[in-house]
## 1
Amino acid sequence: MIDTLKYCLSGRSIESPLMSTTPFPSAADERALRRLLLLLATIAGVAVANIYYNQPLLDSLRGSFPQSASWVGAVPAVTQLGYAAGMLLLAPLGDRFDRRLLILLQIAGLSIALIVTAAAPNLTTMIGASLAIGVLATIAQQAVPFAAELAPPSQRGHAVGTVMSGLLLGILLARTAAGLVAEYFGWRTVFAASLVALLALAVVIWIRLPKSKPTSTLPYGKLLMSMWHLIVEHPGLREASVTGACLFAAFSIFWSVLALLLAGAPFHLGPQAAGLFGIVGAGGALAAPIAGKSADRRGPRAVISLSIVLVAISFVVFGLSGASIAGLIVGVIILDVGVQAAQISNQSRIYALSPEARSRVNTVYMVTYFIGGAAGSAVGAFVWPWFGWMGVSVAGLAFTALAGWSHARRRTRPVTAS
């Protein structure tokens, strides 16, 4: 294991695809692993942030493209659909090729998409570029399976939680950064700044990120087809995917409509205020490693059950807080802790199902997850003009109930035994 970590930190190839079978023999090795997990967390956060920059900007986009104002809700929905498509088509390649090379190639494509978005002359162009951003931002989905591969089984939940904390901070603080930048420099500058951050990250990746050794020799077509066999073979993967998708749909309903709620009466607040709610929600990301440790100790199902209850409570709070900033803040904290704890626990258990196919297992889960997110954003865009904030809260509660139903169906059959 010592040699393995030396390879990792020197940037050379990882010789064993199943490093998790060997425990760490010394504290020095554990420190080396922590540094590597921190790098993976940074990659995940910076990459995934790109699909959330547009959420606090919807009111600004409506002002920039008044002739297409009714279609601004399509921007976050299409971005999330693109992310789901990118996971389906690109993320499985992590089992077949060196993840470092894949990440660098995706950064190159993502940089082009960001340039087009920043210069978009109309909403149609922006929607098309947003789809490309979603597809290429799946860089993050190479980092999480890599963390599960590096960690021993007894620490897998904690390792996944550590990298996911970076990913979740990227999701939540993206809204804060976008809101602040848009408030003072305009929404186009948000995407230009993201381009600069990505290029800086590419330099760090080139120098520090280790190469990974493929675990599969399947051709691309068969690699994609093998995911269907994983779905059929593992009922637990199906259950975890549906549960996660429903919770993320509820999560996306709130965040995709929040900027519109704050822009109207009685708040009359701009994108900066919507973005600042991301700082409040960052508590959920900071709780991710704790959730991972709890899943290691107590089992993931108990954590997920509690998470579903927390998300349901958050939407009750939201429904009662349509005119209260304090109520919205309380609801955001509960929502983010609940959704992120469930996400960590779900991913921790699915990675144990098929160690040689972690990228593909992750792809099945995350494609379903982001289809749920896109559905949530689309439902939010439909419900908001017709039923207002109370309708959004009821829709979020309905998705949470679906998550509870999916989870309860397999309460007597552990996922890891699937």
Note: The two ends are 30 Å apart (CA to CA).
## 2
Amino acid sequence: MSFVQARAVAKREIDVRTRTKAFKIVTAILVLAAIAGPVITAVWPEGDDGARTATVAYVGPDGDWFTGAVDGFEGDGLDIEVDLMPERTTAEAAVADQTVAAAVIAPGTMIWNEHVDGQLAGVLYNVLQFRGSLDRGTDLGLDSEQVTTLIRGVEVGNEIIDAPAESSEIQTVLAFLGMLTAFILPQVFGQLTMMSVIEEKASRVVEVLLSHISARTLLSGKIAGVVMLAIAQLCVVIGGLTAALLFTDLVDIPPAAWRFLPTLGIWTLAALVVYSAMFALLGSLISRQEDASQVMMPVMIPLVGGYMVAQTAVFGNAESLLVRILSFIPLTAPMLVPVRVARDAISPLEIVGASLAMFAGITLLLVMAARVYETTILHSGTRVGWKAVWRIVRGRPRLSS
């Protein structure tokens, strides 16, 4: 194989494909998504915390103390406002009119309308118990600080063994962008490669090219040109994503984000090589663009299947058995490994194993694609069947003109 000739073929592919509308549109979409994703996540309003407000009437001495104690005991999801009232009848009327949610009559009575609000009752119960403890402590000769120390709750912590990996919003956004990039780029540039092969066959340009260079050189140059074009597009996307992360000061960027960026580049590059070779192989099987849909299914199944599983890894469990298995399969790993790295849900040993499997898969697929391509590229007429493809892969080609 001549390196100079392959480089010339690659340059020709780059010149032709950069002029297409599809290339320009996909580039614009990916760059916009890469920049907008982290920025939108950072500036998107959080909204309210979902807390509800309840007003409570209080009748009794030390109204200011009761108000402060309520503020100390209320938890997330409930804001309590205290309305101090002079006598019980006024408080009861307010409860009956539903002006207030409940009334507290010192030293230990709570009044409700129709039903007891469990969440609110829990807070008021704790306040009244605390007040009662202070009063009993005073009767026993203890001051308020001693009573507070005596009844203060013990801090209890929670530890979880084998806790599932948690992701921040920015990690989820990165994982989604990685999945989208690894799904769109190989598909778009793979189909561009297939269309290029079909066009050359239909116009018989391939016959002229093969009179000067070998079929394997032509295939290598075509794949190299398409991959280099995709790499340029990928660099623009990763550059935009990096800039968005660096200039987004409103959110904390997790360490996994910086491991994700090079991972995305490497694995998307691997996907481009694999799928460009496979789509080139498919293009050599047919002579008309109208027949493309008949041969694309075997390639689209793992591509779409990997995308669907990757979605579950982005928004759900990134360490399920299915996700782990598909991370080692070359046709689906490029969509899953970057997602798992973004979510910090993959071990270094798994990355090494997936990389070795990907390298072996690329080598095997390139050998298979080259063998089929050089056998079928000059075939015209009816589509080459899958049985014939299998015979070619096994080294026993038999094609009819």
Note: The longest strand covers residues 52-59.
## 3
Amino acid sequence: MADLALTPPPLQTSKIPATPSFGIGASEGLKRTQIAKAAKDFEASFLSVMMGQMFQGDSLKGTLTGGEGEDAFKAFMSDAMAKQVVRSGGIGLAATVQKEMLKLQGLSEETKT
């Protein structure tokens, strides 16, 4: 019966270095990642508001619209479209915001090589 006991596989050691290979510390790399995400989230939020304004009004009402529930889901559609625009390269707002956020954190715009 002891032969049938399940044993966990041996732990594999990770070969990922403690610091990224491009010459910056782990905490700085984490900050840069968080700043980039925040900048993209800001751009998506901005675009969502802008697109929400485009879809307001009665000009879109008609036979080929979403019916009575359409108003409830317009915000979701605006958010999804804005996120897709940002994933596709955005309008350049994230890059500008990211640059300014890096400056405020005392980090250079470019990573060290």
Note: The two ends are 57 Å apart (CA to CA).
## 4
Amino acid sequence: MKTAAQIIFWLGILCIPLSWLMWYIGPEIEIGRQVMNDVADPALRTALMEAHGERWGLFVGLWPVTLMVLSYILEQKA
């Protein structure tokens, strides 16, 4: 059980730079692109793509805290 807690802890640590990376490459991810391509206004499309990247970064940014708390709980149970 202790190794599971350590693995989950290090996955949480690795999610921190992943969150930053997702913030910048999030607009390039295919999820939601088909909707963005239907927007005719280029300024609106750019703003929506930036918002899409921010949402991906925030979504992944919640993982480190969750994984570290889970790691702590598993370590206390062991």
Note: Residues 5 and 75 are 6 Å apart (CA to CA).
